[in-house]
Write a structure and sequence with these properties.
The chain is α/β, with parallel strands linked by helices. It contains five helices and 14 strands. The chain binds guanosine-5'-triphosphate and magnesium ion.
């Protein structure tokens, strides 16, 4: 049921496409003939360049859904050269517009070929074939009438995987029900679905957090992670790719969890199994739903905190600690880009 909902979803962050560039137009073999000009010499033009397949960043797009059904992308072929030294027309380039943060892999080897991170950034994925030279090109003093021309270069093709990694500054990491979406709804204008059951969030949500003095940063809420996610439990770890790009990871553990330290370790472990590089990122721990605890339990909770990262107690319900959290996140982001 959950799987079905994901498949129906509008949030597409993975597509496989088959692309082919245009082949170069052939060169022309032609000898000039005209009334009273019997032997006008070679005048075959060159073939046109084949079209390129180009990836282009487009800040208007947030997902790859527009490519979900456009799985074949072909650039135009170059036109063959004409007579009278006319060069053939070049084939049309095709542009594949992608959201910022899209990486492109070779589908067979999984090697990352390129990455688009800026608006209007263009990268040629497949070069079109060069046009062949017409026979006029091969004319020399000793071979004045070449009766041959060059064929155009063939097209190149390949199957590619486009993958989207959200470009957010802060990524939320936590078990289902930790209150991640609730936090996002409190600190930004985003309206993610919130409910009292596991896996309410099935696709990432982004929100812009307004900070003092009209500054802002982007926060990404992703589906909850459970123990064994890296082996495919729950929704698995495929959504973790969205936090690979985030500068700061905000771990979230509810204050009423049995052991905050243990829950944090499990999350860390799943992240490490997915990609050890994730552990190089700056981390902050938000102990959520602090409103559920009385003073005594708070003291107890404080004692069972992991030692290797800073923490903030927060409650999205009462707003307690929310400003402190934003300050801390902002400070870390500033350090990062200082
Ligand atoms: N008392 C209290 N309840 C909270 C707080 N924040 C969230 N909740 C409740 O916790 C439940 C889960 O909240 P969500 O924001 O949906 O949790 P999530 O981490 O996004 O969960 P998934 O999307 O399933 O991963 C909801 O019933 C919220 O109302 C809080 O600060 N205090
Ligand atoms: Mg959620």
């Amino acid at each position: 049921m959950i799987i079905r909902r994901i498949m129906d979803s509008n949030f597409v962050d993975y597509v496989k496409i088959f692309c082919r560039s245009g082949k170069g137009g052939a060169g022309m073999t032609h000898l000039h003939r005209e009334k009273y000009v019997e032997k006008g010499g070679p005048d075959g033009g060159n073939g046109g360049h084949g079209g390129n397949v180009i990836l282009r960043g487009n800040a208007q797009y947030w997902t790859l859904i527009h490519l979900k059904y456009a799985r074949h992308v072909f650039a135009g072929d170059g036109v063959r050269g004409g007579t009278a030294l006319c060069t053939g027309a070049g084939g049309n380039d095709v542009y594949i517009d992608v959201p910022l943060g899209t990486i492109c892999r070779d589908a067979a080897t999984e090697e990352i070929l390129m990455e688009i991170t800026a608006d209007k950034e263009e990268k040629v994925l497949l070069q079109g074939g060069r046009g062949g030279m017409g026979n006029a090109f091969f004319k020399t003093p000793t071979r004045q009438t070449p009766r041959f021309s060059q064929p155009g270069e063939p097209a190149v093709e390949g199957t590619f995987v486009l993958e989207l990694k959200l470009l957010a500054d802060v990524g939320l990491v936590g078990f289902p029900n930790a209150g991640k979406s609730t936090l996002l709804s409190v600190v930004s204008a985003a309206k993610p679905k919130i409910a009292d059951y596991a896996f309410t969030t099935l696709e990432p949500n982004l929100g812009i957090v307004q900070y003092r003095n009209f500054q802002s940063f982007v926060m990404a809420d992703i589906p909850g992670i459970i123990e064994g996610a890296s082996e495919g439990r729950g929704l698995g770890t495929r959504f973790l790719r969205h936090i690979e790009r985030n500068s700061v990871l905000l771990f979230m553990v509810p204050a009423d969890s049995e052991s905050i330290k243990k829950e944090y370790k499990i999350l860390l472990n799943e992240l490490q199994k997915y990609n050890p590089e994730l552990l190089h990122k700056q981390r902050l721990l938000a102990v959520s739903k602090i409103d559920l605890l009385d003073d005594e339990s708070r003291k107890k909770a404080k004692k069972s905190l992991p030692a290797d990262l800073p923490h903030v107690f927060i409650s999205s319900a009462t707003q307690e600690g929310i400003t402190e959290l934003k300050d801390k996140l902002w400070d870390i982001l500033q350090e990062k880009f200082a």
